Amino acid sequence: MNYKILITCLLFCLSQVSHGQVTVEATIDSTQILIGQQVNIRLEVSADAGKSVEFPQYDSLSQMLPGLEVLNTTDPDTQYLNDSKRMILSRTYLVTSFDSSLYYIPPMQVKVDGHEYESNHLALKVLTMDIDTLAVDSIFPFKAEMRPAFSWDDWRPVIWLVVALLLLLAVLVYVLVRLITNKPIIRRIRLRQHVAPHKVAMQKIEQIKENKLVQSEDSKEYYTQLTDTLRQYISDRFGFNAMELTSAEIIERLQADNDEEALRELRELFQTADLVKFAKYTTLINENDRNLVTAVDYINQTKIEEEVKPQPAEIVVEERRSKVAKAVLISSIVVAAIAAVVVVVLLVRRLYYLFI
Question: d(Cα 229, Cα 202) in Å, to the nearest integer?
Fold first, then answer.
């Protein structure tokens, strides 16, 4: 029984030791390179999760040891094991050398919760290039600096930036001049010449005659245009919306202002039009002519001659600039100036990269 208890205690102690164990291992991609070639040194730390791990730091182009330069250092990469109880942290150092030699890389020190741990040591052999000194023709000096060939694709952004800058400067100058001179805002309002309702109606009837709809077999189109012309004339002449009323409603509204003879002929015209449009009634050419004459007679009987007064084609209105307008101008100046500065910076950067 005592042996069993002793064995159990030993196993428990071993598990606790292994649970808190920290291991540091360094590996290298290749143990032999040529001068100027690069190789990765990977440093891997295994510890309990939650431990604070500090890797050795090397600035760019600093030396890990004399003759061995560190070009780049990656960020630590973390991998969790055993239900996130253990973790493996790794970091890669990119190194190179320009001196042929056999380099002994001493153990790299890592701090875990303030305690220092060391990795295994590494070795790296750097070989020089074999040069045949007897074959002088095989050795060439450095070539002169060569500029890339001209390409419009490289200069297209510069051209667009210059165009944008010129437009912004034009806007900026224009707004500044408007603000400094404080000129009034000039508005030109074009006036539409007033045409009497009966003249508009007669022009439309003349258009119906020119289109020869009176003689057309399409009576529905003819009566639709003729009654629409009359409805618009009645709306403008008597002041109610005849376009939305039925024929009977229009006649009822006109009884107060028209004589019975004129309304009788107009009623017959609307009745014929309704039959043609809704009952497929067929009319004769002489009936179409008579209804056209009826429409013209009604317009002539009810028209009002208006005194023609000369009117200007447009009116020029001058307004003083308000405070809101001045604020808008100032804001436009600020925005245009900032945009111009941004474009100039982009243009300078682009030119810098083109000529470097």
Answer: 9
Contacts made by residues 74-82, CB under 8 angstroms, sequence distance 24+: 80/49
- Pairing type for strands 122-127 and 32-34 reads parallel
Q: Which of 319, 322, 326, 323 has the alpha carbon at shortest distance from 175?
A: 326
Q: At what angle do helices 219-238 and 197-210 cross, to 10 degrees?
A: 170
d(CA 238, CA 215): 31
Residue 184 has pLDDT above 80, yes or no: no
Question: Who's near 309: CB < 8 A, 6+ residues apart?
Answer: none
Helix/strand/coil (H, E, C) string of 182-240?
Answer: CCCEEEEEECCCCCCHHHHHHHHHHHHHHCCCCCCCCHHHHHHHHHHHHHHHHHHHHCC
CA distance 349 to 125: 43
In sequence order, the 6+-apart residues with CB closer than 8 A to the CB of 229 are 201, 204, 205, 208, 295
113: phi then psi, degrees, rounded to nearest 5: 55, 40
Class of residue 45 by CB neighbours under 10 A (exposed 0-12, middle 13-18, buried 19+): buried
In contact, 60 and 71? CB cutoff 8 Å: yes
Gap between the Cα atoms of 92 and 43, Å rounded: 6
pLDDT of residue 7: 57
- DSSP characters over 230-299: HHHHHHHHHSS-GGGS-HHHHHHHHTTTS-HHHHHHHHHHHHHHHHHHHH-----HHHHHHHHHHHHHHH
The tokens for 285 are 């050419």
Q: How far apart are CA 193 and CA 75, in angstroms?
A: 80
Nearest residue to 93 via CA among 47, 45, 59, 52:
59
DSSP letters for 307-320: ------SEEEEEEP
Question: Which tokens go with 192?
Answer: 């539409």
Domain limits of the chain?
22-127, 153-189+319-355, 197-302
pLDDT digits (tens, 9 = 90+) for 219-261: 888 888 888 998 998 888 888 888 888 888 888 888 877 777 7
Determine whether domain 22-127 maps to CATH 3.40.50.2300.
Answer: no
The span from the CA of 148 to the CA of 36, in Å, is: 26
